[in-house]
Design a protein that fits this description.
Layout lengths: L1 H15 L7 E2 L1 H11 L10 H11 L7 E2 H15 L3
Antiparallel strand pairs: 1-2
């Protein structure tokens, strides 16, 4: 499991650093991450409206960016749905 956590952290940072900050995902970075890394886990991953809705659900402070905690929560939700829990 340590390898899985390391992969999640490194992929988040790789996408987050596209615009210079490796601490948060902008809208564009989030869209790239979802469409490239999670297309089979996120329903309608290619639909901008679906991505906007997903982003809004993770953006608790309305700053238009997603931090790692929000990303981690998304991974937990997707894993839970995938596992049938």
């Amino acid at each position: 499991m340590e390898l899985a956590v390391n992969v999640l952290v490194s992929r988040f940072k790789a996408y987050a650093s596209i615009d210079g900050s490796s601490d948060t995902l902008s809208r564009d970075e989030f869209c790239r991450l979802i469409s490239s890394e999670l297309p089979n886990f996120v329903k309608n991953a290619g639909d901008p409206a679906a991505i906007d809705q997903l982003m809004s659900s993770l953006d608790k402070n309305n700053d238009e960016e997603r931090n790692f905690l929000g990303f981690w929560q998304l991974i937990g939700q997707l894993a839970s749905k995938h596992g049938g829990v």
